[in-house]
Amino acid sequence: MTPTISYQINRFLRGSIPFWLSLFLIMLSVVPIRIPGFAIVTPSLLMISVFYWSLHRPYLLPAPVVFLLGLIFDILTGTPLGLSSFLLLLVHGVALTQRQVFVGRAFILSWWGFLLIGIGIAILSWLFTSLLSLTFVPMVPVLTQLGLTVLVFPLLAWCFYMIQSSVLRHI
Length: 171
Fold this sequence. Notes:
Elements: H1 5-15, H2 17-30, H3 45-56, H4 63-77, H5 83-97, H6 99-102, H7 107-133, H8 140-166
């Protein structure tokens, strides 16, 4: 028996929730906040989203979608095109290959794994930025951004879990 068109549309719309949430987090990241210097150290909400959905529902946020989200982020923030896409694809790839380590275990293990991946991404981001500017960029803003991102992770992970357990339960 073939599913009805309304069922297929419903399933598609529910399945696109991780993409729309990630796009919303991109928009939230680029909204100007009137705190001096905050734009430099804004938490990487998109990286949290990519990590979470790559662990728990990787088929809802595949690599091409991650690449597209990275390009949108690069366009809106003015970073070199493809840099965020590359770094987010690394997060996606590591999360996919390490799913069996994180899924079904204590939350603290996922948080620890996110911290380790975040450190690697922060170092790569700093390295690429320094290479592109042909000078050593200060490391303090990068570490501050990493710290804020790791601190925000539990809140966003809890929100994503609530969405996953209610709206995405049958997908």
